[in-house]
Request: fold
Amino acid sequence: MRHAGRLWEDCHAGHRGASAGGAKPLTRRHNAGKAARGCGERPAGQLIGGLAMGGLAWHHRGMSDNPDPAAPGAAAPRPRAVRAAAPRRLRLPAALPYAAQAAIFSRLRAANPHPVTELEYRDAFTLLVAVALSAQATDAGVNKATRGLFAAAPTPQAMVALGVEGVTEHIRTIGLFRQKARNAVALSQRLIDEYGGQVPSSRAALMTLPGVGRKTANVVLNCIWGLPAQAVDTHIFRVGNRTQLAPGRDESEVERAIEDNVPAEFQGSAHHWLILHGRHICQARRPRCTICPIADLCPYEPKTTDPLP
Reply:
């Protein structure tokens, strides 16, 4: 308003000259109350808005908060924000049809009629601990560590009595052994406090135990109680997508795809067949297609042709 008022006064320079000769000088209040002569027919308040919108808009812009970008010392214009495009979801291929699923699992069953986990255990408690320790470790490495551990602590009560330091000494050779030792003692204490020292037989109850996730719970439910629970690890995730038996973007989608697409007669051992197939034949870096029993039914390309030992 200060600059616009100055323009109004400049517009009446002739009146100021007259006032120097003895006439009464014009004031802003006087101008606002009377019609302006020689500068339009609006009061001051309206003329100021007209100046901003009309031919003198360049002068108003020059005094605004957005100076000419080419002027010396002018601030750089603020870059316009660009909204990032949402990431596109990976389009999955369709799962193999029912007939192909049945043919593949029939061959896997013929090659290994009674598949079992490669972890060594005695009962539900030792299996629960072994699977919890197997995260980011090989089954062979876990077996080597748990032979001494389970000899010293075969029950939840004995595991709590052994303590974190005692468990740590037995499992020092596997990854993340300190945190796993704390979890083994903590879950043993939880079993004593809430389940009378017994391993519960529901997924929800198992997943309340320290260090026990969905995959660990599914292994225990499948191996101890025969529930057709699908414990999806990196091997099953790879095989499910390569063979299109169970395509999925993550482990939960692959688990759901196995439950939805694998015929019911194979559900109980599907987890074992797939994990053993991925571990020993359909390996990550170079699948052993020349000895694969389902190579002619598998859509994965390109297949390896050179024999491996």
